Amino acid sequence: MGGWCLAGVLAYEMARQLTQHGELVELVAMFDSANPAYLRRFNKLELMIRRTLFWGNKTAMHTRRLVGMNPRKAAHYLWERVGSLKQAARRTFWRLSYEFRNEKTQEVSEELKDASAVVYLAARAYQPGPYDGRVALFRSALEPMSLHRDPKLGWKELIPQLEVEQIPGDHRQNTGRAGRCNSCASDE
């Protein structure tokens, strides 16, 4: 079983629970799936430094990509990046909305009834346990090291049988528009 990004984290937890109930899981495949609890171990200063390095590296990566593009392709690329920023703003809104409403009332806002919002908020609170099965973590070769600054994306202490492989492309390219992994089928 497997998944991309947060779906990989869900697959990991499903495999843990299935094996605890005696089921056999041959392999968990996670594509660009970071351990959501890993960053909680750092203090605010360390997190600020990690965020600064991450965004600096990400800006440099996007700038390098833009340099060789024709204007039309560059405009399309920038428009896609704006979409990513909008999604990040939505996630921040979900988190703040949830925290505010959770303090004041049990009422759930319409925004938080969206499945993406629920998965995102659940992942932020998730504390993964150890898993003794085989796990393959596929990392996008073109992504900066991430906030984790760890090639194993925060999983090494939990998964003794973790194998990490780099795959061509970036985080978005490896899912394609329909949410599937295109790079895995390539011959590279």
Q: Helix count?
A: 4
CATH architecture of the domain at 1-42 and 129-188: 3-Layer(aba) Sandwich
Q: What is the CA-based Rg, rounded?
A: 18 Å
Query: Which whole number gives the mean pLDDT?
Result: 78
- From the helix content, strand content and strand pairing, which structural class follows? alpha/beta
The global form is: globular
At the fourth CATH level, what is the homologous superfamily of the domain at 1-42 and 129-188? Alpha/Beta hydrolase fold, catalytic domain
Largest beta sheet: strand ordering: 1-2-3-4
Tell me the name of the CATH class of the domain at 1-42 and 129-188. Alpha Beta
Number of strands: 4
Low-confidence stretches: 176-188
Largest sheet: 4 strands, parallel
Percent strand equals: 5-15%
What helical percentage do the residues reach?
40-55%
CATH topology category name of the domain at 1-42 and 129-188: Rossmann fold
Pattern of helices and strands = EHEHHHEE
Tell me the span between the first and last alpha carbons. 23 Å
- Subunit arrangement of the protein: single chain
Question: Care to describe what's here?
Answer:
This protein has a four-stranded parallel beta sheet, with helices on one face. The chain contains four helices and four strands; from the N terminus they run βαβαααββ. The chain has helices at about 5-20, 45-65, 70-105, 115-125, and strands at about 1-5, 30, 135-140, 160-165. The protein has a domain at about 1-40 and about 130-188: 3-Layer(aba) Sandwich (Rossmann fold). Mean pLDDT is about 80; it is low at about 175-188. The chain has about 190 residues and is an alpha/beta fold. The longest helix is centred in the middle third of the chain and has 34 residues, at about 70-105.
